[in-house]
Design a protein that fits this description.
The protein contains 13 helices and 15 strands. The protein is 35% helix and 17% strand. The strands form 2 sheets. Strands 1, 2, 9, 10, 11, 12, 13, 14 and 15 form a 9-stranded mixed sheet that branches. Strands 3, 4, 5, 6, 7 and 8 form a 6-stranded mixed sheet that branches.
């Protein structure tokens, strides 16, 4: 009877958040700097469908400037806003939980030391529990460089590679064949248990393939590739998200990609796995069709997809050209989603944090995110306050609660009815 489609463009920030200086990110602007990079190359960024929904207008509200090289449309087909984050971190769980109406208002645990990052007692327990010969890494690192540096030694010794970043995360990389995928997953489950006292948001399994120079097929470490068998072991949200509320109310939540993992599978009725943006798009279209069938059975359905490659392949790797091309490819396929919408459906596109591919380092950036919405009786134009800004990502969760007729969330305002009942209490 009621459907909503929520697409998360992982890391697609639109300008530094009001508190960005506290994170060392004052001046970060994922969209703006990608547009500037492309304009300088003589190939202006072309996102006509996102622009029609209000993307460039949202960016203008966030930064006070129009992105370089783009021409904003005179007429819009969607409602738009720039949303700020009130969660304490700039990571995936914090952003997604807040999108679903549950901001992370506590402090995550972090491993701050660049080298020898993990407590010896933690590693000793992990090695003993998992019967490991030891571990490699134990540092802050980006995914591919650490594979190139330590992948051969990992294969030769059987020691998994453990590393972290500025996020609240413990990552374990291992070769799918030489170490074993199931063994990697089991190792991550042990790590998840051991890390609970440290309040670490996620343990991430980072499987890879490829052989060493002395391997059977003669490949080099430069050919190591991470696979689509990544798995995130997140802690559960502290209170029910709008996903959980909908599920508990008899509705259906179809999580595409890593959505199930991000929410620790709380409130996710069915997971549709896919690897790569085209496959994620195909799975999203399939889920929308399935939601249509369920709606005929008077079941309310939320389809939620995370498009992770923006973050992992282009943001963290500081590749503005790749990021731009991925955005344009996404934009070209967006009409396939729009064509499946019914007038009463609600479509929302947003992001969970920033990851400016022109920024220093390899970590996420604290940014505002776009909220582009269409359907459900919305009038094209700005959402939120008169400036087109939302005080929290939780406005999305609150609006979804209204759309599905659920009890209100504890945080956020409902932009579907112009509610002004924003709460940010404990």
């Amino acid at each position: 009877m009621t459907r909503a489609i929520l697409l998360v463009l992982d890391s697609f920030g639109i300008g530094n958040a009001p508190d960005a200086s506290a994170f060392g990110d004052a001046g970060a602007d994922t969209l703006g700097h990608i547009a500037r990079h492309r304009a300088a190359s003589g190939r202006p960024l072309a996102l006509p469908n996102l622009a029609s929904l209000g993307l460039y207008h949202a960016h203008h509200r966030a930064t006070g400037e129009w992105a370089e090289g783009v021409t904003p449309p005179d007429m819009l087909d969607g409602a738009y806003a720039a949303a700020a984050e009130i969660s304490s971190g700039k990571d995936t769980p914090s952003g997604h939980w807040e999108i679903a109406g549950v901001p992370a208002l506590f402090e995550w645990g972090y491993f701050l030391d660049e080298t020898q990052s993990f407590p010896p007692d933690l590693l000793e327990a992990l090695i003993e529990r998992a019967d490991l010969p030891g571990v490699l890494g134990n540092c802050h690192a980006s995914g591919m460089p650490i594979l190139e540096a330590l992948g051969e030694e990992h294969i030769a010794t059987g020691k998994p590679i453990v590393y972290t970043s500025a996020d609240s995360v413990f990552q374990i990389a291992a070769h799918e064949t030489h170490f074993g995928l199931d063994r990697l997953y089991a190792l991550c489950e042990i790590a998840r248990e051991l890390l609970m006292p440290y309040n670490i948001g996620r343990v991430i399994a980072r499987p890879f393939v490829g052989e060493t120079a002395s391997g059977f097929i003669g490949e080099t470490p430069e050919t190591f590739e991470r696979t689509g068998n990544r798995r995130d072991y997140a802690i559960e949200p502290p209170t029910p998200t709008v996903l959980q509320k909908l599920h508990d109310d008899g509705g259906t939540v179809l999580g595409v990609g890593k959505i199930g993992d991000i929410y620790a599978h709380c409130g996710v009725s069915k997971v549709l796995k896919a690897h790569g943006h085209d496959a994620l798009f195909d799975a999203t279209l399939k889920a929308i069709d399935e939601a249509g069938e369920r709606s005929l059975e008077n079941k309310q359905t939320l389809v939620m997809t995370n498009f992770v490659d923006f973050d992992t392949l282009y943001g963290h790797r500081r590749d503005p050209d790749g990021y731009a091309e991925a955005l344009e490819a996404f934009d070209r396929r967006l009409p396939e989603v729009l064509a499946k919408l019914r007038p009463e459906d609600l479509l929302i596109l947003t992001a969970d944090h920033g990851n400016d591919p022109t920024w220093t380092g390899t970590d996420h950036t604290r940014e505002q995110v776009p909220v582009l919405a269409s359907g459900a009786g919305l009038t094209p134009g700005p959402l939120g306050d008169e400036a087109g800004r939302l005080a929290t990502f939780a406005d999305i969760g609150q609006s979804l609660a209204t759309h599905f007729g659920l009890t209100p969330m504890a945080h956020g305002s409902d932009f579907l009815t112009d509610s002004t009942t924003t709460t940010t209490g404990d």
